[in-house]
Amino acid sequence: MGTNERVSTGLKGFDAAIDMLRLGDNVVWQVDTISDYMHLVTPFVRQAREDGRNLIYIRFGPHDALLDDMDGIRVYYVDAAQGFESFATKIHNIVKDEGRKAFYVFDCLTDLLKFWHSDLMIGNFFRVTCPFLYDLDTVAYFALKRNSHTYDTIARIRETTQVLLDLYRVKENYYIHPLKVWERYAPTMFFPHLIDGQEAVCITSSADAAALFSGYTWNEERLDYWAVTLQNARNALSGPPALQEEKKKLLLSLLIGEDSKMYDLCYQYFSLTSLLRIAAKEIGTGFIGGKSVGMLLARKILKVEDPQRFMHLMEPHDSYYIGSDIFYTYIVQNNCWDLRMRQKTQEGYFCCAGELKEKLLNGKFPRHIQEQFMHMLEYFGQSPIIVRSSSLLEDNFGNAFAGKYESVFCVNQGTPDERYEAFENAVRKVYASTMNEDALSYRINRGLVDLDEQMAILIQRVSGDYYGDNFFPHIAGVGNSSNLYVWNKDIDMSAGMLRLVFGLGTRAVDRISGDYPRIVCLDNPLQAPLVAYGDQQKFSQHRVDLLDLRQNILTDKAADDILPGGIRTDFRLFADPDTLTMNRLRDLGYRDRKTPYILSFQNLFKKTGFAETMRDMLALLSEKYDYPVDIEFTANFTEDGSYLVNLLQCRPLQTKGLGQPVSLPSLDDTKSFLFYSKGNFMGGNVRLPIDYVVFVDAKAYLKLPEQEKYSVARQIGSINSALKGRNAMLIGPGRWGTTTPSLGVPVHFTEICNMAAICEVAYQEEGLMPELSYGSHFFQDLVESDIFYTALFYGDKDVIFNPALITDHENVLADIIPSTPILNDVIHVIETKGMELYSDIITQTVLCK
């Protein structure tokens, strides 16, 4: 890595002036034209040929080739339009494959501006490529067009390169002015040198030097190319329509990307003015990511298509966006690029992820980005904000990435320095979540490993208000425009559904131990999923997620402690008195206890038009997307019951539809059925052959120590891998994927992702109850992976379950994976002969026999 072996530039006089080049040198020429650069490349290549060097030409610019004679030169064409990471990775792999002591000529780096529109990314590219070339004892020529880049970019390149040279052409004469020649020095080295054939005449006279440069044009102000692009777009607003159209397409490609269904929708609804408003709220450069695009597009659709219906009901937003280029800059700035390259290999994909995650959690941001962060925080003041992942692939058609990346609340209390530190840590946490095991596995399962997954960030003001020391919205949740997973044949599936909670929406997207969101069918919102009499309180929400301003944390508190307090609207919109519990307390003599409440939301649907608003909103968005949609929202109410809805997120809802009606077997012999149930399934009409059944015995499972319950989850993961490609059905007690082993088996979704169907069985006496997870992140994973789901409420009158049809057969677990003997009584696997799973939406029947 960097030896003292001398290398010629092909100009003997200039070799003497700079004491020649060295193996390991990256040589950067600042030029006025490509032809001037060619004037220096030609002798370098000629000399390298004579010396028998391995010559490589990296071709990416739109200009003519730098060399007329390609004999003996290996040419690589690299498409810079594919983006920074793809470009840098391909060149990294070229350099790695070509090995030590190769000689390189690169096209002019300034041409990368045409593809990336960012000086920042050119500096990043050079900073990650130059050291790798140096380590392999190569010599590489690069060029930059003078006055085309910011001083900061030039400074980063000067800091990284070994040799930086200015080339001037004055009156048909060429002059080379060395600016940096690393680890070499001579008294006249850094004077201008006139190139006369093979000679280099040093210009030492002050008069001659002044005469040489005084007539030269200097550009004092150097704006980042991104800023220049935006300014040109602003100027186009007063220009002809054709110019505005051109700039609109350019900004769409820079902020959103190209060649996608989302691009087409954004093109339809965003004007040049609206795109400039978005760009004005961006920190750094690059894409704003899928989550930001989905939120902005949904709001724009509602505004354009039916402003009278929706705009007076919509809470405004004033979000900021951290551009995807900052993610790369952060990686480069903190010397993580080599580690990222290793992590992107097949062998390093998982094993390098932990180390990279740790480095991302502890990095530093460039000063100019820190200043923009501070400006943004000053804008929000002490309003709580949420820092949300918004990766390029997130919330797009085909890939939701639901729950795979972090979102971090910043309560935003304390001194400016404390608030700033908390914000930076939140950004770091989002960046580091790109290395979460679930996210990496999701990318593999969805065939996305080879696609760039840049992480942009959406920063939103948290919706809600201060209620004493607490901050929260009145209600929040998720909504689906298509309710394919229904529990009653009378439900209109096209009306959509909500998964609704009081307070922050975190309980709506996650499956929380002991809490149940309100599932709302928007055609009949007063109709709730069937719950046995007396269990309404048990299967409802009990705790409220909120921001505690005094403690400066996200936390949860009992709903009964929040509801009767002043929330500046009638809390009875959301809660009804729990008369059963109240009567029971009175019977026990507790007459002074305050009235307990159930979060039923009945009056919300009886006394306001909220359900109708959400139904119409989902229907319009789905119509314009030409696809079912999934939204996240909040709503806040006034004393008179009026409300504002804050649309936080919108994405295509992955769903396979109803399917064709299925002919069900007769119910003559119920003992031949593995199970039968009315309702409580998700997945449409199916007739699915089952090759294997994987069964977790509830009683044996509950007897295990807690640590062994986690071992069961890991064993399920191994079975899941072993049965990939087979139609396997997984049956177990309580909730699959819970974080609480006493409520079910704590698998990660990646440990059940290959199953054709999963079944959650209720054992009420043991406290093992499924949760119909419509709308949750778990729901998204099931639908995207095309996994059929059913819940069996064992003991209900419309439910049959015969586990003996599994346990009476030979356990083939040991034939599939090496198993722990203690778990053989817990996990029972059978290979079936002709078993099939049936479901029918119209009759709401699901059965397996």
TrEMBL record:
Pfam families: PPDK_N. Residues 288-658 form the Pyruvate phosphate dikinase AMP/ATP-binding domain. GO terms for molecular function: ATP binding; kinase activity. The keyword Kinase applies. Keywords: Kinase, Pyruvate, Transferase. This is Pyruvate phosphate dikinase, PEP/pyruvate binding domain. It comes from Anaerobium acetethylicum.
